């Protein structure tokens, strides 16, 4: 049994599809298929039920998937322990950031990481905020920047970095023609929504609920940049981060409705480290993130 076989096994578990799993582990579909087959032969159990809908775990596969995760985690801890004995911190971390690297001060973190810990590699995996939370719980990423106003969950550490004020952005064509004075008038405009996994979504839902109305999002955008662009194009109103909305006002793109404001938090989330150790690559990265935001 080889560690790469276990990595392929867990990739198929996560993706339920050989093609996507092969992309995830940077190899070919026949190679992943052969690795799964070899693993099944060595273990003497069937790991997946194969069908036209994809790959579904068997009962044996479900039980062994957790053991595979523990085995890979143990191998990673062994490598890190050896690196510490050499006076180094090494490892490859998978980070799920939100879509605005400037707001994250990500450049500062990456510069410090390269200077102090050149043995740490970082893979940036773009996701919506709550998608990153879900990916952390599954073990698909190690850490993430997210817009999040929830509490810490089992197995996750939540560190609030900065409060993010939110505002309603209104297209200039509505502002110049018939400015919505009341909340009802505002909510009667066309609205641009975001997916449930977006960190802006809860605030928009609270706004509609405060007026006893159901969210009426006739248009949808996945990223904050796309939402801003659609408001600027005159398609509808939307909730934006206040800093983005002010920048758009300065650029003459839209106006801010002054009678509502909400907030969320930019947070650092990570998986809990084994035995609470901070002498790992993840601990080193977290230390740099907090240094940048507290400095």
Which features characterize this protein?
295 residues, Arc Repressor Mutant, subunit A, D-Maltodextrin-Binding Protein, domain 2, six-stranded mixed β-sheet, globular
The side-by-side strand order for the widest beta sheet comes to 4-3-5-10-6-9
Percentage of residues in DSSP E strands = 15-25%
* DSSP, total strands: 10
What is the CATH top level name of the largest domain?
A: Alpha Beta
Using the 3D structure, state the CATH architecture of the largest domain.
3-Layer(aba) Sandwich
Rg, Cα atoms, Å: 23 Å
The major sheet is characterized as:
6 strands, mixed
> What structural class do helix, strand and pairing data support?
alpha/beta
What fold name stands as the CATH topology of the largest domain? D-Maltodextrin-Binding Protein, domain 2
Envelope shape: globular
Structure description:
There is one protein chain. This protein is of the alpha/beta class. The protein has 3 domains: 76 residues, Winged helix-like DNA-binding domain superfamily/Winged helix DNA-binding domain (Arc Repressor Mutant, subunit A), CATH 1.10.10.10; 107 residues, D-Maltodextrin-Binding Protein, domain 2 (3-Layer(aba) Sandwich), CATH 3.40.190; 103 residues, 3-Layer(aba) Sandwich (D-Maltodextrin-Binding Protein, domain 2), CATH 3.40.190.10. It is built from 12 helices and 10 strands. The protein has a 6-stranded mixed beta sheet with strand order 4-3-5-10-6-9, with helices on both faces. A two-stranded antiparallel ribbon has the order 1-2. Strand 3, helix 5 and strand 4 form a beta-alpha-beta unit. Helix 1 packs across helix 4 and helix 5 crosses helix 12. The chain starts with a helix and ends with a helix. The mean pLDDT is 86.
